[in-house]
Amino acid sequence: MLTLRGTRAALRALELEDLEALYEIENNEALWFVGETLAPYSKFVLKEYLANAHKDIFEMRQLRLAICDVTSGAFLGLIDLFDFDPHNLRAGVGVVIATETEKRKGYASEAIALLKKYAKTHLHMHQLYANIGDENKASIALFEKAGFELVGIKKEWRRRRDLTTGEESFTNELLYQHIL
Fold first, then answer.
1. Rounded distance, CA 75 to CA 146, Å?
2. C-beta pairs of 166-172 under 8 Å, 24+ apart in sequence
3. For labeling, which of 45, 77, 177, 178 is most exposed (least CB within 10 Å)?
4. Nearest to 7, CA basis, from 75, 76, 72, 70
5. Which range, 58-62, 95-99, 173-177, is most confident?
C-alpha cells in the first residue's frame, strides 16, 4: 500500500510476531503516565489484543500500526489513532519509537506524515490532535515539524510519579491540532 510506505519507514498492521516488542513497550513504566496505565500487561492479554487487532477502526475507535524500517522490515515502534470520532472526523495521534538507538533518525516524523496521508485519503478525516506533556520537548518538536499547532494548555493535567524518588507532581499537557 503506497499510502503507508515512505522512504525510510513503513506502517503495517500488527502481527503476532510483534508480541515481544509490544510487551516491552506496554510494560515500560516510563511510558505509563502517557497512556494512563497503572499495571503491567501480561503476554496473554496482549495476545488477545493482537488476535482482535484486525477489527475495523469504525468498530474499535482506534487503529494501532507498527512502524517498520523500509529496507530491513525491522519493527521500530508504534503509531496510533485513538478516540476516533467518525461523526466529527477526528482522532488523537500517539507515536513511540521502541529503542533509544532508533530515535531521532526521522522514523517517527515519517510515520506521522504517512498516518496523516492515510487518515485523509482512506478515512476521509478532517483533523488530528496530539496531547503532549509540556516537558516532552522532543515530541513537541516532532509534532510542530509535522504541522500540528498548539491550541491549548491543560494546567496540572497529569499526575506523575518520579520512578527514582517516588515523588509525585502534576504536569501540564499541551493540546496540538492539525487540520488535514
1. 22
2. 171/133, 171/134, 171/135, 172/133, 172/134
3. 45
4. 70
5. 173-177
pLDDT for 155 equals 97
54: pLDDT strictly greater than 90? no
Tell me the per-residue pLDDT of 124-154, one tens digit each, with 9 for 90 and over: 999 999 999 999 999 999 999 999 999 999 9
**Cell numbers standing for residue 119:** 487518515
- State the helix-helix crossing angle for 107-121 and 137-145, rounded to 10 degrees: 50
- Going from the C-alpha of 129 to that of each of 49, 65, 89, 102, 132, the distances in angstroms are 24, 17, 11, 24, 10
Does the reported pTM lie above 0.70?
A: yes
The DSSP string of 125-162 is --EEEEEEETT-HHHHHHHHHTT-EEEEEEEEEEEEE-
Contact 28, 77 (CB under 8 A): no
Contact yes or no for 78/25 (Cβ under 8 A)? yes
Which set of grid coordinates corresponds to residue 81? Answer: 489513532
Spatial CA neighbour of 37 closest among 161, 129, 131:
161
